[in-house]
Amino acid sequence: TYGSGTGAIVVPATGLQIRARLRSSSGEWSALESVDLPSAVAPEDSPLVRGLRFAEVMSCSADEDAAGNTGDGSEFIVFTNLLSDATLDLSGVRLTCTKTGNDAPSLDLTLPEGVSIPPRGSVKLTKADDWPTAKITNGKVELAVFDATGSSLLTGHVETSWFNAACDGTGASFLAVDLARDVTTEAQWKPSFIPP
What we know:
The chain has helices at residues 47-51, 127-130, 162-165, and strands spanning 2-3, 8-9, 16-20, 33-37, 52-58, 76-81, 88-89, 94-99, 107-110, 116-117, 122-126, 140-146, 152-159, 174-176, 182-183, 189-191.
């Protein structure tokens, strides 16, 4: 969107792709050019940046949800707080889950007032309690977390094909073994158990 006639472009939390071409005075159009503008990144000294991390993701459970969708009933995401001296206020934090290659997220959740994580604690968000009508999605999943201003906090990526499909409807979840802000490779996760 444009801001108050100033020509300023507001980049949404998910980033923005701008495409443009120019028309010459003789009426010829230039080649189409594009640029991807990433979302803003939260300041490094923010408690959310320093402390909030993915701990566990269940993207494809072994049971059904209330609507009868197999593999979606027990979806959950666990966040942890690495800080020993600060409670993390998650009010207004936004979580999106998008199937790789899709534009629209299958889950777009803004956390309500009062959600927090105590020092060295964790919080578990569940399909049943937090997103009963949406789903994380199966297959290749892009996870993104933004603060209340839309600045990027965390990114993640999981694939149900990883670990010989150990987390594909078997009851096993993805456990983060790397507590970095970006956990996007198979080496940064492990299955919660290896199914027989």
